[in-house]
Amino acid sequence: MPMYFKIVLITILCAEIYTAKQKTINLNKKNWKQVTKGDWMIKFFSNKCPACVNFQNEWVKVQETAEELNMTVNFGEIDVDTEVELAMRFFVYSLPTLVYSSNGKFYTYVSKRIHNSILSFLTLKKMSETIEIPWYRSPNSFGVHVIAKFSSLVFKFHEYYAKLVESGKYPGWLVIFVALLLSIAIATMFSLVLAHMINFMLFSGKKEPTVKKPKIVLSEAQTAEELDKSHFKQS
């Protein structure tokens, strides 16, 4: 076999082995919903965070040991510097943060961030070492989806604002004024749409109540008196 084909074959084999061992999945806003199926341990980190850098060795040990033990748990990583929307979905305010997901239920891991403790938790399912994320704060709930989208929009505006100010074409006050007008217009339109939706859901299909006239029941004496009066008028 020529040397060229040997090199190509070795390269392919090495790539397959590396891919098989590379169990951590980089999650983003397009593929993160896969964590709702099966068991996942998700790490939120930033390359600018010293604690995250120090934790990396422990994180690698956890994955290597889990692979040796043939554990079914999946591992995912989310870089909060590039995935701001996901960080807001999970309400991540400190780094590194570990979130455990089991078939769509999410838990924040609050125990020691060393590989032995994490492996013990994954093996024995010590849920006492976690805090369950309630349904209304779940990353796939509608309310959290709206908050995450709004937060992402705010960050994008901040980046766009910085670029406009740095370019020197527009003064900062003008950019803020235009953004304020747009925000008021969008909020007004959203409020009107929401009011119409609520009005439609609450009052659609309801008929106006009809007022029934009370029936007047006359006694026999009153009836006889009325007949006498009518007879007297006719005569």
TrEMBL record:
Keywords: Disulfide bond, Electron transport, Endoplasmic reticulum, Membrane, Redox-active center, Signal, Transmembrane, Transmembrane helix, Transport. It is found in: Endoplasmic reticulum membrane. Pfam families: Thioredoxin. Its main location: endoplasmic reticulum. Residues 24-122 form the Thioredoxin domain. InterPro entries: Thioredoxin-like_sf (IPR036249), Thioredoxin_domain (IPR013766), TMX_domain-containing (IPR052454). It comes from the Eukaryota. Residues 1-22 form the signal peptide. One of its GO terms (cellular component) is endoplasmic reticulum membrane. Gene3D superfamilies: Glutaredoxin. It is a single-pass membrane protein. The chain crosses the membrane at residues 173-203. One of its GO terms (molecular function) is disulfide oxidoreductase activity. PANTHER family: DUMPY: SHORTER THAN WILD-TYPE, THIOREDOXIN DOMAIN-CONTAINING PROTEIN. This is Thioredoxin-related transmembrane protein 1 (Trinotate prediction). It comes from Henneguya salminicola (Myxosporean). The lineage of its organism: Eukaryota, Metazoa, Cnidaria, Myxozoa, Myxosporea.
